[in-house]
Amino acid sequence: MNIKIELLKEHSKKQTMAVVKYIGDDKNRFDELMKLFLSDNYRVGQRAAWVVVFASEKHPHLIKPYFKTMLLNLDKPVHDAVKRNTLRILQNFAIPKSLHSLAIKQCFLMITPDQPIAVKVFAMTVLANIAKSHPELNNELAFQIERQLPFASPGFISRAKKVLKFIRID
């Protein structure tokens, strides 16, 4: 299977799951997928994003070596799907301490009002998880969340309440 061709063929859950199945627990195939996800090709990155989420859920050991690369990729002009799914993945893992400062920087950039709601809510969760080890982040995170609440969508408000409760600031 040519992963790139399959990604571009159709954007559906059925196609996504077919590619996930093909990749399986194969490191080389996963590496090929990650090259596509992290590529400068806007459409390919978008299409690869969903596959990366499902593949990393099934085989978490395959994604862990990519944490730093994924965080650095957020500095590029990438499709919102790449941002959203990078943060969706990272919210479910313990990010190594050596990457905390990079993750904190990137996530605070991702919770600005101009970002899409899903990007912001996943970034909030990543920051809340890191704040367990760095409680000095709690006040800044709470400030960034609370300043957006008056204008926020129901999805943002729902996640914001959970995060504020999690970091023990209400």
Short key terms for the protein model shown above:
170 residues, mainly alpha, 11 helices, 68% helix, globular
Could you explain how this protein is built, in words?
The protein is mainly α. Helix 2 (13-23) packs across helix 4 (42-58) and helix 7 runs parallel beside helix 9. The longest helix has 17 residues, at 42-58. It is globular, with a radius of gyration of 16 Å. The protein has helices at residues 3-9, 13-23, 27-37, 42-58, 60-63, 67-73, 80-90, 100-110, 117-131, 138-146, 154-166.
Q: How confident is the prediction overall: mean pLDDT?
A: 95
Q: How helix-rich are the residues, as a percent range?
A: 55-70%
Strand tally is 0
User: What is the distance, rounded to the nearest whole angstrom, between the alpha carbons of the first and last residues?
Assistant: 51 Å
Instruction: Estimate what percentage of residues fall within beta strands.
Output: under 5%
Order of helices and strands: HHHHHHHHHHH
> What's the main sheet like?
none
Global outline = globular
Question: Low-confidence spans: pLDDT under 50, at least 5 residues?
Answer: none
* Tally of helical segments: 11
Instruction: Report the C-alpha radius of gyration, rounded.
Output: 16 Å
The structural class is mainly alpha
Write the layout of secondary structure elements.
Layout: H1 3-9, H2 13-23, H3 27-37, H4 42-58, H5 60-63, H6 67-73, H7 80-90, H8 100-110, H9 117-131, H10 138-146, H11 154-166
